[in-house]
């Protein structure tokens, strides 16, 4: 049996701790935080939240939630908010009393429609909603629809309307009132089944599914990542994650990427997080300089902005020493460009799903990632490739990627049909077509026996000023097996120029096809053509949902007559 795994040994995982116990109290071989290095920095004001204050707010909030709403084991609290410096203390407070948080990809996305939030609250039976004033209108309407009192709505920001309690008021209340709760104490092994999050997966069909994430899954992934990056190795040289380093959280805490990386892994690594509620590129650049940011964690559209936008050249980005891209692999063109924009940084890529909470593969700290790679398997992750005929693929053979490890989700809650197709004998089916080489994951197509990395073509297409986003998939083909087909989204200016004019649409398609043909080998040409669409399907973490467009390509192939040989 061909099972791929990283051979680096892991330390033992504690399986009797809650997440806040691990974050605040577990010190085994952990980096020591500098006294002047805060947990969080509020981007707009510069307010700094120290380790001591984060801990104080967590336990005061735990007491307040216990007294006011009797939150206890397995009760659900929903967070519906952009990033905020009290986001993590609320999460950890609920975990302290044994409750479960629902948010993330896409549960409490502030862009949710009313009906979607109603579904979220009804499905999880949430007892309290914690939100931001900007989201209050939607929250109050959804709460009313599911029978939840407005007294069970908490505001993260005091600038909201009167009549709603705020987290600041809850902290004061929880501090002054006698302690009403006992922190949850887990028995050995219990953290493996104790729920911490109900994270809703942005599946490609039907309503979102509630993914059950345990305390142990998150803690295991932290230790796996810390081992991978040698954070706890006192003898490792040239480490690029050091106590006192600063990362900027422009990715939302309400999805897996932001929840794990910013709120937990980098906290564990003794770094400070600049909390940004909403991404604005020019303000983002200003904050990098203002707060001396050393680490960037982004998704490909943001990388494209860094490479394309003239504003990036106006700022000193020399302090940045690490840049990670997730959600989709970067092309060689983008990799070459981004290292000129941030010349002192290593640039890596990662791969993960809600169901694999969170990171399955990520690049080690090398200068530049390999083109098409989604990173190297981290310690403690097993992977296999299942070919269409059901047999296991060897190194370099294409098929569906399946992964296993301590950080996997338990299941989809109350969804046996979905569980049967995704969680199979201890493995998670990712639905992504990949190959594995040297323990690195690659998403590829195969054209006439040649391997083609979609990311390479996507990145090259994105160099065109008329293209805002792109996704390349394989179009089934009788002669070549499959051929590259590009789905593209025109830029705002291009879309306005083209309008509904069929001739102008065809002209843009020809420009894209020629752009690729002029620079790439013959088998990489867009023989499947170009389709212009309004948006590339992505989940709320920015991960490209290639499967949706792959299915669309299959339907297109089935509806067309057999192609002549090229």
Automatic annotation (TrEMBL):
InterPro entries: AMP-bd_C, AMP-bd_C_sf, AMP-dep_synth/lig_dom, ANL_N_sf
Transmembrane segments: 246-268
GO molecular function annotations of the record: CoA-ligase activity
Gene3D superfamilies: 3.30.300.30, N-terminal domain of ligase-like
Segments forming domain AMP-dependent synthetase/ligase: 32-413
A UniProt-annotated Pfam family: AMP-binding
Residues covered by the AMP-binding enzyme C-terminal domain: 456-543
Source taxon at top rank: Eukaryota
Name under which the protein is recorded: Phenylacetyl-CoA ligase
Organism encoding this protein: Coprinopsis marcescibilis
Phylogenetic lineage: Eukaryota, Fungi, Dikarya, Basidiomycota, Agaricomycotina
């Amino acid at each position: 049996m061909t099972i791929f795994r990283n051979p680096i040994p892991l330390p033992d995982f504690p399986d009797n701790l809650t997440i806040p116990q691990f974050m605040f109290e577990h010190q085994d071989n952990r980096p020591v935080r500098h006294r002047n290095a805060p947990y969080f920095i509020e981007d707009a004001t510069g307010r700094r939240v120290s380790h001591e204050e984060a801990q104080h707010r967590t336990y005061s909030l735990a007491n307040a939630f216990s007294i006011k709403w009797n939150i206890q084991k397995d009760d659900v609290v929903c967070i519906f908010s952009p990033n905020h410096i009290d986001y993590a203390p609320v999460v950890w407070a609920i975990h302290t009393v044994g409750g479960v948080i629902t948010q993330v990809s896409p549960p409490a996305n502030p862009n949710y429609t009313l009906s979607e939030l109603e579904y979220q609250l009804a499905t999880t039976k949430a007892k309290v909603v914690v939100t931001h004033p900007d989201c209050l209108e939607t929250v109050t309407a959804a709460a009313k629809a599911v029978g939840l009192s407005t007294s069970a709505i908490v505001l993260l920001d005091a600038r909201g309307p009167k009549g709603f309690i705020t987290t600041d008021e809850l902290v004061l209340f929880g501090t002054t009132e006698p302690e009403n709760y006992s922190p949850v104490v887990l028995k050995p092994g219990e953290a493996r089944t104790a729920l911490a999050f109900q994270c809703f997966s942005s599946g490609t069909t039907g309503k979102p599914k509630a993914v059950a994430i345990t305390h142990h899954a998150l803690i295991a992934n932290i230790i796996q990542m810390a081992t991978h990056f040698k954070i706890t190795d006192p003898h490792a040289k040239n480490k690029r994650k050091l106590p006192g380093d600063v990362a900027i959280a422009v990715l939302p805490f309400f999805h897996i990427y932001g929840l794990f990386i910013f709120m937990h892994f980098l906290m564990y690594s003794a770094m400070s997080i600049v909390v940004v509620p909403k991404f604005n590129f020019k303000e983002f650049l200003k904050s990098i300089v203002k707060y001396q940011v050393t680490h960037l964690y982004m998704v490909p559209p943001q990388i494209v902005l860094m490479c394309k936008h003239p504003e990036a050249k106006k700022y000193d980005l020399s302090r940045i020493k690490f840049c990670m891209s997730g959600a989709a692999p970067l092309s060689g063109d983008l990799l070459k460009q981004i290292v000129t924009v941030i010349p002192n940084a290593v640039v890596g890529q990662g791969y993960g799903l809600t169901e694999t909470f969170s990171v399955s593969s990520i690049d080690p700290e090398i200068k530049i990632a390999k083109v098409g790679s989604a990173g190297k398997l981290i310690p403690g992750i097993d992977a296999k490739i299942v070919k269409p005929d059901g047999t296991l693929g060897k190194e370099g053979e294409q098929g569906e990627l399946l992964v296993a490890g301590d950080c996997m989700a338990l299941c989809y809650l109350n969804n046996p049909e979905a569980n049967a197709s995704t969680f199979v004998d201890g493995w998670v089916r990712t639905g992504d077509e990949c190959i594995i080489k040297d323990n690195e994951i690659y998403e590829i197509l195969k054209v006439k026996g040649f391997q083609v990395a979609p990311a390479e073509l996507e990145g090259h297409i994105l160099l065109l000023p008329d293209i805002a986003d792109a996704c390349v998939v394989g179009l089934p083909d009788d002669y070549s097996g499959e051929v590259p087909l590009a789905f593209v989204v025109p830029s705002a200016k291009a879309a306005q120029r083209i309008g509904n004019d069929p001739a102008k649409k065809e002209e843009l398609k020809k420009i894209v096809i020629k752009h690729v043909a002029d620079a790439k080998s013959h088998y990489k040409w867009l023989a499947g053509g170009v389709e212009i669409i309004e948006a590339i399907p992505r989940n709320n973490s920015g991960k490209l949902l290639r499967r949706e467009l792959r299915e669309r390509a299959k339907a297109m192939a089935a509806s067309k007559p057999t192609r002549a040989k090229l």
